[in-house]
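Section 5: illustrative case.
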């Protein structure tokens, strides 16, 4: 089993370098819109993936919203995210699923010209969110998560959760959010410990209208256990609520920084795209999302 895990580690070493370790697919969730804005979403809270980022934001959604997102990166890698949220000024609920698969991993017992077989590694994270407004301008929310990982024939499961708060200032045009993510514990994968990426986020969102257009400015401070502090920021420009241009930046990472993308809206339907160039010879990350306002 140790040699199989070693082969798997070599195959996905670049993924771990970019996104971290221990259910690193958690950094791939959400929509292409959020990805284009530097993954700064702690206080943005206005689409179907809100429960994934900060469950307290469900109270300002004021609608039902669904989003489906796919990531395309290296060969034999697939990642999909589904999120649904339903909220009003009093409270809200949300669900999300995040699935990641790395295929084509070679099984070898020792050095050999050909592998014994090929196998896949899988990660599945499912979450259910709930939020309530506790004061006129303050909301809190919680998310209960289930974690599942399988490599070859070995499996591990776990339970965890998030807890978040959102504070609306100056009539809602300025929002502050904070969330503690991935509290919990998983079982061992055979004899290997799996540590959840406990993460604290503090975010600010400034949604404004000027020059005849809608703008969103967002910034998040992110601190993950065992990693340095990172700053994520993003900006969105919306022309006539139909065409959107986005950009962002993430500081302190060795292999990623700039993000960008665009989106179009037709009635209650949305189509979004994000692009993240990766350094050190890694293939760039492309993300596509479809959203529906229900």
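Designed sequence:
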């Amino acid at each position: 089993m140790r040699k199989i895990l070693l082969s798997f580690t070599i195959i996905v070493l670049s993924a771990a370098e970019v996104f971290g370790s221990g259910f690193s697919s958690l950094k791939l969730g959400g929509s292409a819109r959020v990805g284009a804005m530097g993954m700064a979403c702690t206080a943005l809270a206005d689409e179907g993936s809100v429960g994934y980022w900060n469950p307290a934001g469900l109270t300002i959604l004021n609608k039902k919203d669904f989003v489906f997102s796919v990531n395309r990166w290296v060969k034999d890698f697939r990642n999909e995210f589904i999120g649904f949220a339903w909220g009003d000024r009093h409270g809200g609920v949300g669900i999300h699923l995040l699935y990641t698969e790395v295929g084509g991993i070679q099984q070898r017992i020792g050095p050999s010209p050909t592998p014994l077989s090929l196998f896949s590694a899988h990660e599945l994270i499912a979450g259910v969110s709930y939020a309530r407004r506790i004061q006129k301008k303050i909301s809190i929310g919680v998310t209960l998560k289930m974690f599942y990982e399988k490599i070859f024939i070995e499996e591990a499961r776990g339970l965890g959760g998030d807890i978040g708060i959102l504070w609306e200032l100056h009539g809602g045009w300025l929002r502050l959010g904070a969330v503690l993510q991935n509290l919990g514990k998983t079982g061992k994968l055979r004899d290997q410990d799996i540590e959840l990426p406990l993460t604290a986020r503090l975010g600010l969102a400034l949604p404004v209208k000027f020059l005849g257009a809608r703008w969103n400015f967002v910034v998040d401070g992110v601190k993950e256990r065992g990693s340095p502090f990172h700053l994520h920021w993003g900006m969105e420009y919306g022309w006539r609520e139909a065409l959107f241009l986005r950009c962002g930046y993430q500081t302190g990472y060795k292999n990623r920084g700039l993000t960008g993308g665009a989106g179009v809206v037709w009635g209650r339907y949305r189509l979004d795209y994000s692009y993240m160039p990766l350094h050190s010879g890694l293939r760039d990350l492309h993300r596509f999302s479809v959203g529906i306002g229900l």
